[in-house]
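Because showing beats explaining, we think one record worth quoting, sequence and C-alpha cells together, and here it is:
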Amino acid sequence: MFVCFLLGSAVAYNIVMIIHRLHFHKLSRFPGPRLAAATGLYETYFSAWGPGIFESEIDNMHEKFGPVVRITPDEVHIQEPFRTSSYSDDWIKGTGELESGHYQGRSVHNFQYKRPSISRARSLLRVEVNHIINTLIEKHQPHADSSYFMPGSSKADIYEQLLLSTQGLLDGQRNWVSNLSNVSSLLWHAYASLPAPSSSVNWAGFYIRDDKFPALASPVTSPPLPGAPGSGSVIISTTYSCSESQILLLGPFHGKPACQEIRFGKGVCGTAAAKQETVIVPDVLTFPGHIACDAESRSEIVVPILVNGETVAIIDIDCTEPSGFDEEDKKYLEKLAAFLAENCDW
C-alpha cells in the first residue's frame, strides 16, 4: 500500500511539474518542442546517442522555431546572428533564466566562448536577448514585460536592460509626462531585482522644473491667489527673475508620497539642479540642509537632466541603506538622463 502511495505521489508530482513547465514557468512563452519544455528526458534521449547529437538537434530546433528556442525546461538557446531584419511570428518575446550551457565551440556575436568564460557569455547573451525583446516592443505588449528584470543579473546588466527598455518604450513618444512615468516604473523594478543595497531603494522618480509642466508652458490665467490684492485673476509668469527663484515640482515616481516642491540650491535635489552635476550622498543625515521626505531614506543619488545648458528636471533615487549608490550608478543614470534630455519635448 505504501509503495502504491509513493508511486501515485511521484506520478502526480510529475504531472504537476509538467503543467507548470508548459504553462506557468518563466520560460513558458519561448518557442520550442513541447516535450523539451516538459522534461529533461528530451535532452537525455539525444545525448545518449553520443557527443554532439543534442547540439545537432538544437540546430534543427532553430530551423523550426527561430533564433531563440527553449531546449530544456530551464534553458533557452540563442542562435547567431542576434540582430536580423526578420523574426518569426511564431516566437514571442519573454524573460527567464538564460542559462544554457551549450555555448562551447560556438561563435556568439563575433566572440568565441569556452567553458572557463561561460559567465561572461551569459552576461552578454542577456544583453543581446534584451535587445531582441525590445525590438519587438510594439508588437508584443511591452508594458508588463519591459519591467521584468532577470534575478541574479549584475548591476551593469540590469542598467543595460533598463536603457534598452527605455529606448523601446519611448519610441514614437516625446511627452515627458508619459515617458517619465514609464521610466520611474522601470527604475523601481530594476533596483528591486538587484541584491542589497540596491534592492533597498525606497523612492525612484523625477522632479521637474515648474515651467516645464504643461499647465505652465505659457502664461495662463488662474483664480486669485490667497491674499492677493483686488478680485481679478492673476497672471502666472514663467520667466524667472533669477536662477535662485527656480523651483522643482514633484513628477512621476514610485515610492511614498514626497515633497511637492524643492527650490534650486536647497537639499540634495536642489543642489544637483543648481550645480548641474550628479550628487551622491552616502549618508543623508550628514548632508547640510537635507530635505527629509521619507525618514527611512539614508542615502541618495540625484542626476540632473540638462537641455541647452539648463536643468529641466532631475532623477532622484533614495535608498534605506547607507552608501546605497556608487560610480556605476552614476555612470548609467547619467546615460539615462542624457537619453531623456534628447528624447522628450521639454
